[in-house]
Amino acid sequence: MTKAETAAEKGFATAENNFNAGADAFKAGFEKAVAGYDTVVGYGKDTAEALIKSATVASKGAETLHGEIYAYAKQSMDESIAAGKAILGAKSVHEAIEVQTGFAKSAFENYVAELTKFNQLFTAAAKDSLAPLQSRAQAWVDVVQTNAA
Predict the structure, then answer these.
(1) Cβ neighbours of residue 96 closer than 8 Å, sequence gap 6 or more
(2) Could you tell me the residue ranges of all domains in the chain?
(3) Structure letter (DSSP) for residue 114
(4) Is the separation of the CB atoms in 54 and 129 below 8 Å?
(5) What is the CA radius of gyration of the chain?
(6) What is the rounded distance in angstroms from the CA atom of residue 90 to the CA atom of residue 66?
(7) How far apart are CA 23 and CA 138, in angstroms?
(8) b or e along 6-33 (b: 16 or more beta carbons within 10 Å of the residue's beta carbon)?
């Protein structure tokens, strides 16, 4: 065997090793990309489910709030009509003013109490509807950190 044949064989061996190393690196990179794609697709599916859950919770919260507003409006109207009848049935101007003052005080206290209740309902509904989305934000951070490693 001559020096030229030995050098050629070494060159072919080196080329073959480099080719195999490149193929292995390509295969590993491709498998990592597929795994990353699967992770992102899974994240997207879970996020869609979280969006649906969030919308459902928000819808139920809005429905509850609407029901409370309707009930308050009906009660307020009924109390206003009753107060109007009482004022019209008063025997004196002084009695009418007392009825009106009592009604105004009661109406204001009820209004403040209802606004507080509406605020609590709205806050709870917003918090509950955002909870699934907050967990998805943390999941995205986890996906990015896992795939960056």
Answers:
(1) 87, 90
(2) 3-148
(3) H
(4) yes
(5) 37
(6) 36
(7) 36
(8) eeeeeeeeeeeeeeeeeeeeeeeeeeee
In the structure encoding, which two tokens stand for residue 124, read together? Answer: 């709870």
- 54, 133 Cβ separation under 8 angstroms: yes
Cβ neighbours of residue 100 closer than 8 Å, sequence gap 6 or more: 83, 87
Count of all residues that appear for the chain in the document: 149
Long-range contacts of range 9-12, CB-CB < 8 Å, 24 or more positions apart?
Answer: none
Q: Using one digit for the tens of pLDDT, what is the confidence trace for 34-87?
A: 666 776 677 778 888 888 899 999 999 999 999 999 999 999 999 999 999 999
Q: Indicate the DSSP class of residue 103.
A: H
Q: What does the block give as tokens for 107?
A: 């109406």
Kind and range of the H or E run holding 113:
helix 93-148
The reported pLDDT for the residue numbered 46 is 82
Amino acid at 145: Q
